[in-house]
Fold this protein.
Amino acid sequence: MGDARLMLALESSCDETAAAIIERDLTVRSNVVASQAELHEKYGGVVPEIASRAHVTNLLPVVEEALEKAQVSLADIDAIAVVTRPGLVGSLLVGLTAAKTFAATLGLPLIAVDHVQAHLYACRIAAKRDIFPAIGLVVSGGHTNLYLCKGATEYELIGSTIDDAAGEAFDKVAKILNLPYPGGPHIEQVATKGNPAAFAFTRTFLNDDRLDFSFSGLKTAVLYQAEGTPGAVNQPPPLNEQRIADLAASFQETVVDVLVGKSRQALEQYQLRTLLIGGGVAANSRFRQSLEEMTAQKGYDLHISPREFCTDNAGMAAIAWEHFERGELADLTIDVTPGLVRKG
């Protein structure tokens, strides 16, 4: 469509305020993220009202920085992309309102982006070639979903968590183990000093035909090992540095085993050879190592999102160019679609 060359993309679905300048060939000229981790740390999770207020404060400075780093101005932008689903309603609305304003005042086309699909499209950006069809796994604080990716913008949900997402479980277990928020990086760090076989936690659904996940029971099992079982005569010893490390390592290994096992199962069920991995938990080194081992053994083509695209960012919104090429544009009446993605 036309000679559009540069896109300004906005992402504000949860607690990261992000803007990126993306070329039509998917080159990400700049990708700026303002984190809110410190604001939410004392609560042990994201507080929606605090998140949306921080987006209002951060959005324009983030856009200005993205333009400056890309060495362009708003006059050089040819299209506006914005994440409109899924996420926190207040947070999404801040990004969408800004995107509509830019599109209306500059007379530019507006493209709506699905946050979860964008996580998987980060693999396409890194690959610099077509990687579809594929099985895609998005694993983050809000999502643990398996997709049949028929094309760059054609995603069918084939499996999801029935309770906690994997990243959410990392945060909750970190709190149990008195580790800082966000939990993922801190559990990964502490786990390097622990024994991943110290505790034999159940791999829920690992041998089930369903392509679903459940991590709530695992979180509770860690809690009982850390703080004891209500009413039980024999209680665990007090937490010390080594016990925390062993619990962290055993928990992490259990999550990794389930995620990798279910990914393999989906590839087998749908008879595909390509696996895409995206989302915040995709930054976990043990997870990446286990995926590489499994896919090498089976001869699968593995694409893991680069670490700079794993956590929420606007660069992965480059998927908007796919919609642009197809003429799939939004108008100024578009609204956000909050909430989590669930199967069925």
Summary: The two ends are 35 Å apart (CA to CA).
